[in-house]
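Nucleotide-binding universal stress UspA family protein, pasting as requested.
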Amino acid sequence: MKKIIVLIDFSEQSENALKVAVSLAKKHDSEILALHMLELNSALISSEAGMHPEQTVFFLKLAEKRFKDFLNKDYVKDSTITPIIKHFKVFSEVNEVAKKHNADMIIMGSHGTDGLKEIFIGSNAEKVVRNAEIPVLVIKKEHINFKIDRFVFASDFKEDKLPAFKKAKDFAAMLRAKLDLVYINVPGDNFLSTADAYEQINVFLQKGNIGAEVAIYNDYSVEQGILNYSESSGADIIGIPTHGRKGLSHFFMGSIGEDIVNHANMPVVTFKI
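Structure tokens follow.
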């Protein structure tokens, strides 16, 4: 892992994300790209719309000063950090920055149960997740020394999830964490008998040439199943696959993936299918 993007809005949540980024960077000799997006848009920075270029420069200089103060912390010493300031809150730009710098991961902070807030001022982190081509790690609280021992990856184990699984496997190996695979079985149209569920899982494992065991966990909803299984198994982090801009995978049925990110007490990492 050579480069990590950490999203900064100068809040407590983004400082929690920065601490995790620093912890990982020191262990893997990585560079940190600290990315901040200004609360400006094309209308505001257009002189025809009333804001003059010198006002834009003022906001840029203000952001640069806040960046300097924000990064002036003892725990970031001896870390390689490159500040990046973008003019707009355009979430696709996060992915563009990642591509330009060949970044391996995005780390962001979140309030959690109050919704994904303040990663950028007044916006939603799920937009970053949907645009990101690389894994996105969402941090809920402060971690002085970020260490993961048990990593739960939840999936429906259909063939289209193989790319996400391979990324999750690499992520677990990088962290030297035990990868725990789980299929959540719920009542309703998507219910499978134990035999049918294992048949679907075995096809997935064979196509991916994967030598691993998958637990089947029964619950009333996919979201609760993932959360309950992860907590009962002593997990340190939850991994979920996403379709990105096309919306969350069929496995998550709407906003379940976002709900997991919101309601989980532990870090959550998403992987693009």
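Note for the archive: Helices lie at 12-28, 53-70, 92-101, 126-131, 162-175, 194-207, 222-232, 256-263.
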